Amino acid sequence: MKKKQIITILSATVTIYVITYLFMTLNGHYEPYAMGLMQGPNDKAILVPKGTEPYAWCPFRKPTREIKPLIRTMLFSPLITFDRAYWHTARKVDSMQYPVIGYFDFKKMEYRNITPE
Q: How far apart are CA 44 and CA 41, in angstroms?
């Protein structure tokens, strides 16, 4: 193989890899990344999202089988890291532009799912 053919094949592979991730992430959502205890109403302890960035972007829905998400996460780990750092940052949760599963409303002290309209 010539050098030009190898570059063409590598470019096509990287392009397909990125496009595949982009299509998979269309159904993505935010979900709590770290949880901790907090004193709730009636002095009961409740589990709430905690941390400097309590929500993280999950690019694809989790299927019922456990091995598939692990393989996908390992395969797309570089793009997930890049995506969380530059596009789907934890700060975008409060904008309500993206779906959030398990959003904790501290004012109402309750969990709810957010589906943007």
A: 6
Q: Taking the CB of residue 20, how many other CB atoms lie within 10 A of it?
A: 13
- Contact indicator for 62, 71 with CB cutoff of 8 Å: no
Q: Model's pTM, two decimal places?
A: 0.73
**Domain tally, the chain:** 1
Asked whether 32 and 95 are in contact (CB, 8 A), the reply is no
Domain that holds residue 12: 3-114
CA–CA dist 117, 56 (Å, integer): 21
Q: What pLDDT, in 10s, does the model give residues 86-104? A: 988 888 887 778 888 888 8
Neighbours of 97 (CB within 10 A): 11
Residues 104 and 109: their CA atoms lie apart, in Å, by 7
